[in-house]
C-alpha cells in the first residue's frame, strides 16, 4: 500500500481575480470552469490540480495525495482510526467536487486537512497553458511539492512518516529545522519548516524548460512579486525562484529537480544550507546577523567550498554511470 504522489492542492482565498492572474498569467496554469464560485486550474491532463475556494483565510485549505490502489483508502482509514484520528469517508459529493473516483479525509495534528484520493479524473481535452510554456513536469512525480510551517516537529514527524508512510529524504537543522519527504522519485513532495508558526509556507511547481522559469522570473519582477531571487537548492538541485502568491505564502517556480530512487534512498542530515547560490530572501529585512544575512552567508560558504550539483544528463543509464565514477 502506498501514497504515491501529491495530486492537488486547495487554497482558501477570496482573492479570486488576483489568483487567476497569478496562476494563469505567471505560473502558466489553465483556468477551468469550476463548480460554484471557486476557481480551478489544470497543469496537465489531470482535470484539476489547484482549487481556490472563495473563502477568507488566505492559507492552505487541503492537500490531496494519491494512493496507487483503491484498497489503500480503507487500509489507511483503518490505521488512522486505530490511532485515534477521525477519518471521513463515503462522501460522494466531495469526491465529485474534487474530480476523483473516491477519497477519504482527515486532519493532521496541526489541523491541516489531508485528503487521500484514488483515480483522479483525466480531462478529455488537451492542456492549454495560461502563458506559452512547454509544460509542467508532473506525471508519476505528481503536482510538485507542498511545504508547511510547523510548531512541533515531534508531533508532525510521526504522523506523516509512521502513519502515512512518507519517506524521509533528508533534514537540516541550521538555521532552523527543515524536513523533506518523498512519495516517488521526486526528492520531496512534502516538507515542513520548523519555524514555530502555523500555516502554509509554499508550494512548488516544476517546469519542463528552464526558459519557462526565466520568463516567469521576468514577469514576477515586472510585477514586483519576487520573494526569493533565482537560486539553486542543495538537496533537490532545483533551480528556482519564489513568488509572493496573492494569499501571502510563496510559490516556488522550479526546473531541473533531482529524481531519486526511493528503494535505495537513505535518510540523512544535511549541513550545506538550503542553496548553492541565490535564493536571496528579498521579503526579509536587511539586518546584520538576521535570518536573511545568515542564509546568504550559508550560500556564500557553499560557493567558497565549490559545492555544486552534478551535470544534468537526460539518459538515466549514463546518469547512473556518472554517479558511480569517483570524484
Ligand atoms: Fe520548495
Report on this model:
The protein is of the alpha/beta class. It has a single domain, classed as Roll (2,3-Dihydroxybiphenyl 1,2-Dioxygenase, domain 1). Helices cover 24% and strands 31% of the residues. The chain has helices spanning 16-26, 70-82, 92-98, 153-163, 210-222, 291-304, 316-324; strands at residues 3-12, 30-32, 39-42, 50-52, 59-67, 100-107, 113-120, 145-149, 167-172, 177-182, 190-194, 200-207, 226-233, 239-244, 250-255, 268-270, 275-278. The chain has a 10-stranded mixed beta sheet with strand order 16-9-10-11-8-12-15-14-13-17. It has a 7-stranded mixed beta sheet with strand order 2-3-4-1-5-7-6. The longest helix has 14 residues, at 291-304. The protein is globular. It starts with a strand and ends with a helix. The relative contact order is 0.13. The structure holds fe (ii) ion.
